[in-house]
Amino acid sequence: MTAWQISPATERVELADGQAEVVFTVTNPGPVDTRATVDIVGSEQAQASWFTVAEPQQLIPHGGSKQFTATVKPGEKAPAGSHWLAGRVYSADVAPEEDSVTSNRVAFEIKPPPEKPKSKDWLWALIAGGVLLLVIIGVVTALMMRRSGVEVPDVVGKPQAQAEQMLKDNGLVPKAAQQPSDAVANGNVISQDPAAGASAKKDSTVTINVSSGADMVPIPAGLVGMKVDDAVDRLQKAGLVPGFDQGASSQPANHVYKTAPNQGPVPKGSKVILYVSTGSGGTTDVCKGINPPKWCWLRVTDVIVPTFMPPFTVPVGPGH
């Protein structure tokens, strides 16, 4: 279970034109790369529809951080007063209640609408006539829209089944297409055509691109027997993350003698462990084969430790 860390960039935001943005920094202190989901919780009177997060799911490398941008847009009918929001982060593959972490609160104020100036008595008749005219125009417009088409709902980010049902409920025909994505969870909608809010004829088709999960890539062939630096470059060009371990083998020192996993395909961005040969005995310098310095993993008394330190020699023998 990942011990997530999340912090807002500010303690308070001001709404400009009815909205504001808050940036949350999420850190993954765990030992493995993990996909994080961020959503927003708010004060008692706040509604979930006030908050949206751009790219709510992102892959965060171990020891690394990424930023998530949340938009606050309460709407004209939101109750005036003091409110707050907080970011909540949890692992994308588990329920929020299992390992979620909530940030410090960010305060915001919804100001009451300005009072309208009092109209003179002679204007009331003109205002009443204008209101009646607007009502008539609205009714006619609504009737014309009902005959000509329907509004396309926003289904981006929704699970495929929910998105298809929303489109059917609005008199539209969904057409799903699969597309790999590192940012959107498997089975959720990446994009739609026509876009949300567009007018479409009843029974017309709306295409939704549904995430098939991370793109799968093969593990490069020929890593075994290769110099460790060459193997690292080969993995990175394939979109994979190298990890390191060492052991004695018949391969020359600083050459790869096996990998884990040893065959693919695997999700793009996965870690592939390179087992680096120490030769037939004595000492070896696993970091020496990596230039410029990258992640280097050394086994010292049966403990794997990551280091960015300059290369140094590690004794190889019983107990090491």
TrEMBL record:
It comes from Mycolicibacterium mucogenicum. The chain crosses the membrane at residues 122-143. InterPro entries: PASTA_dom (IPR005543). Keywords: Membrane, Transmembrane, Transmembrane helix. Gene3D superfamilies: 3.30.10.20. This is PASTA domain-containing protein. Residues 146-212, 213-278 form the PASTA domain. It comes from the Bacteria. It holds the Pfam family PASTA. Coiled coil: none annotated.
